[in-house]
Please model this.
Amino acid sequence: MKKYLIVIEETGTGYSAYSPDLDGCVATGKTREQVEQEMREAIAFHLDGMVQNGEPIPEPHTYSTYVEVPAQAR
Model:
């Protein structure tokens, strides 16, 4: 089992998501829960397609973190 980072962004109509490790693998949903489930399915579909095409499965390599910066009041 591999863990791929997904980035979820709120949109005007719900949420969208993508995985930086899997070019072109995206999903949308009306809720965070829905977009997460859609991404699970999109990643599985994406990886199945790569296997069928004889492509190597990429290793997850991106990570996320938060950095703190002082708030700038103006």
Q: What stands out?
A: The two ends are 48 Å apart (CA to CA). Helices lie at 32-52.
